[in-house]
Amino acid sequence: MASERHRNHRATTAPPGIGPFDLRPLLHGVPLSENGDEEDIQINCVEYLDGNLYVGTTASELLHFFGIPPDPADSNQNPTFILASRLKPASSDTNGSSNGSRPGVQQILLLPRVAKACVLCNSTVSFYSLPELSPVFGTTVRNCNWIGGVDLNEDLTGPGHDKSGSVTILLHLNRKIRVVRIGDDAPRVYRTIDYAGSTLSVRRDSFACVADSRSYALVDIDRQLKIPLMSISSLDDSQPGGPFGQAQNIAGPPDGGLFRSASTASPRPPTDAHGHSRSTSLGDFISRGIQRRQGETEDPVFQDTDAPTPTRSPAPGEDGPNRAQQNRSPQPQAVSAAQAAGANPPSRTMSPARPETVLLKPLIVSPTTEEFLLVTGTGPLDPGIGMFVNLDGDPTRPTLEFDRYPREIVVDGGLIDPSSSRPSLGEAEEGYVLASMAKELEDGLHNGLEIQRFDVNVGEDEPEKWWLEVDNTVSNEAPGNTPIGIRSLLQSEEMHFEQIVQRLCQRRFSPFRGQSTTPTVSLKSNDSRTALSLQRLTQEQELFNRDESDDEVLPPEWETNRNKEGEDFVRRLAKTSSRLAVWAGANIWWAVRNPLLVQLEAALDAAASREQQSQPTTLETRLRIFSLLETIKGREPKMELEFLTLGYIKQRASVMLLVAFLTSTETPFTEGQTAAMEEHLLDGDLDARVVLSLIPALRNEIIVSRRGIWIYGGIKTVVEEYISREQDGLENQGVSSLASNVLQFLRRFLTATRKKKGFGSVSDEVFRTVDASLLVVLLELDKETPLGQLGRSGSVRKELYDLVDHGVDCFDRAVDLLETYQRLFVLSRLYQHKKMAGEVLATWRRIMEGEEDKGGELGDGEQRIRSYLSNISNQALVQEYAIWLAARNPKLGVQVFADEKGRFPGFEHGQVVALLREEAPDAVAYYLEHLVFGKGNTAYVNELITYYLDIVITDLQSSEETREMVAASYEAYRALHPPKPTYLRFLSDNTPPNSEVWQSRLRLLQLLSGGHDYNATAIRARIDDSLSTIPQPNGHEDSNNNGVNTLRHQLLVPESIILAGRARQHRDALRLLVHRLGDYDTAVSYCIRGGAALSPGSRNKRRDSDSSLPPTYEEQVQLFKSLLGEFLALEDPEERVERTGNLLERFGGWFDILEVLEVIPDGWPVETIAEFLVSGLRRLVAERCEGLVARALSGTENLRVGFEFVERVREKGAVVEYPEGGRGGGNGGEEEGEEMIHGGDVLGGESWGEYVQAGGRLGG
Question: The whole model's pTM is what?
Fold first, then answer.
């Protein structure tokens, strides 16, 4: 078959491609001539029922073919038809015309409900039984123009509405229409309608659209009503002047509005007077209450009132049907006129102003239950117009235009059309009109079918039409010389589309070249940038196979069985039915709806040349494919096959675009086209591994399970065709060979594909492949990122981080890729997602120990490790890397052990100290500092002091420069003018920040002066022993009164002062403060506070020993006395006088004037100690006055106490107690021995003074 789209402007509702119909062979080589010697015999009509094919020919023969079903195992075979009988129906030749001028078999009407067939042959109707066509009823009907009028709303194969099981048909006679019921008994006339010259009718319920040779009309066969509609030819002015579109009562007398003709001369019964009234529609006319005629009876047999009458010329004013009777039927006349026009095609010119009237063949079909489609025109070579009217005669839709007046028309589909040949994959409301006509094309006249939609409103656009021709190579006739007939058959035939089965059936696909079976895991090429060692890949493959075999054991021939199941499944969907028969010459075809897949795939084939169907590289081809995808974008499938079809077309078109994208170098894709291609690839749900198989550099990343990759067969063919054309060795070029736009496309496509994770329809192998490929692409793109730059929003590095941070399904492959690309920091992030803390730390350690990390993102690795250790709970792992970190950075390492907020269990202090001593000795001091200063743990004070002391002494022993710096610091401090800071503050302000020795000395001084309980004696001995080997520097002799002269007092002065204070050797401490440091204020403070004066902020510190207790007053007096002696021993006379005078003036209260005068040199002027002497004398006078006042106050107090005593005695009285054997000399009773003596009687006034003198005591 050949097909051509014939349109000027494509409708937006239809996708581009071939037409919606195709021709499939029904029966080729019909034996039209019994002897084979007649070549001008043609097929007039065709009918089909239950595998029986009935063909009527112009030779007045009815051929019956019986169909033999094909072998069920071979789905490609068609039924085979054998000739069962050749029948010559009864016919009449009243005009004595030759056999060649007779129409032959004009109509075959099958009535399966009653198992009867009505055949119209040469204007004679015969009746036969089904299916063998045996004559029945023994009667015929002559002078019949048409037989039909079966109610299209009923299913003839079902029981129908009539309880008797009969079927009602219409016989169009020359003078009337007879409504006949056919059942098992003889046909009976149910009603007779006066309608002369009718040649065609189509009925819906009781409404029939009837045509004669010149006009159309609507007839209510039950109520005998008629609505004239329109003339068949718009140039026909022979019709009477009555109005069209108004209902007429065709049951009335001659004056009742009927147009009389010779065929309606029989008498009529009178009608109601209302029959003369008119209405605008048949429905209005019915609503007026016109009643059915009463007294109608069925004729038991056909009457002879329609016997043939002599042919005569029509009288003036008579109707057109008489003119049609001259040739026995208008059908041959119309056909012959069209054939004559086709045999000698004139050029299309405008008709003259008053053209001769040409009788056109009436054409009526019913697209829906409420509509009729009528065709009008001006001539057989002029365009035809199709008009839709409803049952009231009103227009319902926009008109249709045919390029030429059709020979035949049929409708297929539409809304609720039981006669539709719509396949299972079409839309429910698609309605088509197929018109047989001859069309003049560039190479001459062609006969074919013009196809267009009738159920869409294209507006101002030109409607889309398709042109379908038969394959003239089958009919062995020259193109254009074979008229085409078409008819809608009674019964449809089911058929399958093997093309759809081959396209949509799932097939196993191997993405690797030269492999008949897909490997479980693809072996990476040794030359690939992302290749692994062959040994490791082999191990992975064996592991994968072992896991697969444990989970599932594939049965034998499982692939063959799956292919068969898939074919059976698609074959059940890819079937359709057709009831449209098309014939030309001696060949008959089915007119089958083209499935949506066939139409769209043909559009793809048309978009690319046949040589480049899978590689459309031109811009025009690319745009056509995009246009096709836009037409189906967002289309919601209504059935399963349509869902599969849309998915397949999207996938195939997307693959073609991808191939073009990969191969188009002269006309590269724009950004918009690339984005559209990505969208269509994702929308088509194509397995991402198929996309990657088209890119050799990433093909090695594809992972396939034992069951393989299953895709549509059509997609498999396209992809394999492209892969087969590849050059050898492309797989070994690596990802770096890909263009930047390809890498960016893969980046976006694979990222979008990863969002489908969790969908049950996508296998795990897909995501393993996608993750590995995306990682390779991002690693390749990230090479351009500057070294050390972290992931910014929207950058490739940020996407790379997101990929590994959210986890990948191909973990082992990702590790290998990152190792290959030397991206260790990214590898550590991958381990972090898997919570593999040991691998994370090991990777960071590799970077810090010098292994190359091409990203350079680690930054401060030590700090990163320290922070990470706080967030893990594995104590052993924390211990391992904390020690390693302490060996590199003692401070950070100690912070890990000292961290109390970490998730790991805490370490024991002794354990940590032991570990650090063994593995990281340099970190011991920092940990001890944490314990002593941070935690207040004094158990390690001695150890920490020893550590600091070792550092200081070692440096003093080994460095002359250090000794000089120490001595210089003392000189500098002594040179300061008062008031000056303490030496500890002075040392803190002037210590180099990066000097470990000086920082250690500061920490040593802090510990010694911090009030901690430590062994001062042992420390002093350690210092003396360590410094004894250092030679004595010249000019630094310092002998105290006790003969002490040690290097400790020369180099470690503040330490010696603190230790002397702890040992309560106050004279040594004061001497060093005065003479070695010149720190006079601290010396004075020492006299008042003792050793606490050497500790900054010591007032709020606890006292751990008696040495830190403040001195008593007596001790303070002695300390001041010692300090006075040290001031008097100063070498500088001025400083000696100044310091001594200042001390005596400020703290003279602790000195005795006589003792001071004894030690003050006689040569000093009095003014030096004048203030001291004045204050001392004032103090003495004040003390004497205070003594007098105190004595006077004491006397007064004594008088007061005596007075109170006397008063109390007077109140109480006195009791005289006699000793045993006293007065009376006997053992008298108590009453006799006691005598109350009043005070006044005992103590007279003269004796009070004696009492006072005696101290207030009363003797007895």
Answer: 0.69
